Amino acid sequence: MSNDSENQIALIEQKKIASNKESFFSRLNHFRKKKESNDLLDFTKNFASLMKDGVPIVTSLETLLTKVENERFREIISNSIKDVKAGIPLYVCLKKHNDIFSDLYCDLIRIGEESGRLDRVLVRLSKQLESCLVIDKCIFDAIEYPSRVSCYSFFEIAFLMTFVVPRFSILYDRIKIPRVTEVVLQISFWFQGYIFIIISIIMSFLLLYLLARITKVGKYATDYIKLKIPVFGNL
């Protein structure tokens, strides 16, 4: 590895914290991540096709630059072309954008460059990325409907307990009501008095979960908890 490459890697490691801070809120955006995953797959597939045809790296990147629509990827490719022309390895260029190109992705690119089999590596990477997207879609399709039903049910119950049931309590002031109805009315009054606190607590837990998923330790912790949840852990 050349001294320039080593210096570039050192600079990348020093800037990782800063880049993570800049993309803090963007990393919470699930839809943005999904879009970037699809763009990454298209980029890898097209790059692999060009490399299989024997097109040089710089020429391949210049061709991809004219076809990519995503502004973020256009900027990455444009900067990578300049760096590769300056003699910097491609994996070093991609490592600057670790929020899109994972360490595994960059390491495999490095192996492909050093072994002269970058085309094969890109083909395998495209297959792996495609498999991950298919699995993600299957999981999302499986949990989308029950998740929506659960959310709708919660808000419906909260609305009934907060605004509807208390209105009926006037009818029961002078008559004896069953114990079950009395419990429902008490729960309704409790909801009415603490509805904003309940919503705040739920939103706080959701925000803490999203913040935890940003860090590696947080991902391990939340995944461990998911695997230990009764019934759902087995799924």
Structural features, described:
- With 235 residues, this protein is mainly α.
- The protein is 79% helix and 0% strand.
- It has helices spanning 3-22, 30-52, 57-67, 71-85, 90-95, 103-115, 118-168, 179-212, 216-228.
- Helix 7 (118-168) runs antiparallel to helix 8 (179-212).
- The longest helix is centred in the middle third of the chain and has 51 residues, at 118-168.
- The radius of gyration is 26 Å and the shape is elongated.
- It starts with a helix and ends in a 7-residue tail after the last helix.
- The model is unreliable at 12-25 (pLDDT under 50).
Topology:
Blueprint: H1 3-22, H2 30-52, H3 57-67, H4 71-85, H5 90-95, H6 103-115, H7 118-168, H8 179-212, H9 216-228
Helix pairs in contact: 2-3, 2-7, 3-4, 6-7, 7-8
Question: What are the key terms here?
Answer:
235 residues, mainly alpha, 79% helix, elongated
Question: Concise description?
Answer:
By secondary structure, the chain is mostly helical. Helices cover 79% and strands 0% of the residues.
